[in-house]
Predict the structure.
Amino acid sequence: MRKMFVSAYECKPGMRIAEDIYNEYGAIIIAENMILDDYIIMRIQEMGFTRVKIYETSEEMVPVGKTELFKAQYNENVDNFKGILHDISEGKDIDSKRVNEATNSIILRINENRDIVNAVNEMRNSDEYLYSHSINVSLLSMLIGKWLKLDYKSIKSLVTSAYLHDIGMVKVPAEIVNKPTSLTAEEYDEVKMHCQYGFKTAETMQDMNDDILKGILMHHEREDGSGYPFGLNSKQIHDNAKIIAVADIYDAMTSKRVYRRRICHFDVIECIQRDYFRKLDQHIAGIFLNNIASYYIGEFVKLNTGAIGEIVHINQNNISKPIIRSNDVYIDLSKERSISIVELV
Ligand SMILES: [Fe+2]
């Protein structure tokens, strides 16, 4: 496709960037192929760029909203990830340019919390679980990193680690990965190998570092020593792995793979608080669950009484039991223990 320059003030949402844009330190801040939206255009103008190179398109530019662009970028990242896995399965090295392109485009969305939470909930395709799971875990890990107030460099390594955390699955025989029935002990041992396979595969990537590798290797380790591959304890587990573990469990539990209908996130929150109390870093899990719960304010739910109500308040000391307004009556689920949420509607 032909490329052309447009001035920073002629940029329009929907245009596609045709060459990487670097900051003064030489780091790519906007990668080739990224689709412009109002936020990115504002960043380009703020950073003082006078013009950018875009792909010329014969099609009429369709004005698209921020959310549509977010989804388009999400799908591109899924395709990008497929390409990386394809390369690995053919014995090639990981293309660090592809990884950088995806992680940069993810980090650029760091302030779009609402779009991230929605995308993680909606953009799922059970046939392509591994791909969307990798993007979801990257997005969620980034949010946790932001809520923990990590700096840019740490967030970049965290997102890269999250993006690659399950690449080792490509080396686990497909008949085990896709087996519809439960796994034998030997098959499960093989699945567990994905951490070491992923580590080995990522090790050779250009610009790789220890923080990224440890996130991949240790994301199934648990605080109480019950995890794998090494049964490490809390002090030995890298922070990237602790964060990825929280994002990984949340995404897996809310995915359609596990639940047939639209999952109730408050059940997942309760389940994580109950079943993973000694397994996850409590500070990290607490910050994540508290923040994520607040995005469900305003959602409508069906209660076990049959009534429909709106979530109006999250109880900070009991986040899985919010306050619901139903027919102008306020029901505090932390007090009315016989009433519970059945599903989001
Ligand atoms: Fe994993």
About this structure: The beta strands are 3-7, 21-22, 28-30, 51-55, 300-303, 308-313, 323-326, 329-332, 341-344. The domain at 66-263 is CATH 1.10.3210.10 (Hypothetical protein af1432). The longest helix spans residues 66-89. The longest strand covers residues 308-313.
